[in-house]
Amino acid sequence: xxxxxxxxxxxxxxxxxxxxxxxxxxxxxxxxxxxxxxxxxxxxxxxxxxxxxxxxxxxxxxxxxxxxxxxxxxxxxxxxxxxxxxxxxxxxxxxxxxxxxxxxxxxxxxxxxxxxxxxxxxxxxxxxxxxxxxxxxxxxxxxxxxxxxxxxxxxxxxxxxxxxxxxxxxxxxxxxxxxxxxxxxxxxxxxxxxxxxxxxxxxxxxxxxxxxxxxxxxxxxxxxxxxxxxxxxxxxxxxxxxxxxxxxxxxxxxxxxxxxxxxxxxxxxxxxxx
Length: 274
Description:
About 40% of the residues lie in helices and about 25% in strands. The protein is of the alpha+beta class.
């Protein structure tokens, strides 16, 4: 798989949603699928979340698990549309269902990234964040939850979307409370090489210690030779692991650079293989 193909597919998704979604709000993924030539989008009793396939007469269909919740099914449908976009960019024909097959982790990561472009259009989210910033609002989980409701996605999907947005410097840190997950996962904006000034382990231990008094944090970071501070907020959230339910303290924050028009720009090369 070539990184140029992944980037081209993301560009295609961005162009598609720009012409399809003209105002903020939940994207009509079923109408979007039909625009891409899918003849039917249907719930089904199945163990997988969903699949994209051609019927015997050559029609494209998407089926999704009937028992999943609405936001999960919306992402599943967008994910299958993203597979179609990616196949088109690669010049491949879909001739069998994408179910019960060994999945390529790199392709699945790329397809999820494409799906995020479809479900959470960058230009609308950046406009909303810019407006909130002008009103003096600091990054917080209340904003993420408001955006989640607007676009009918999960809070986790919206939080990770912050790391993908152009003109946004964002960080995400999760501290495993129960020990059922990696202790200090750390992720950063794909648009700049951000690192923590004090290192991951030191910073995570500080954040968890300070959380006893306040969930508002300031985190020092470096990017491009410049040191600056990112306002963040933490929240204790539950997650599902192979060992069962687990809790983590999830800290997220971001800074805009005042250039929201960059939403129309190209994704950074650093996302490839992310």
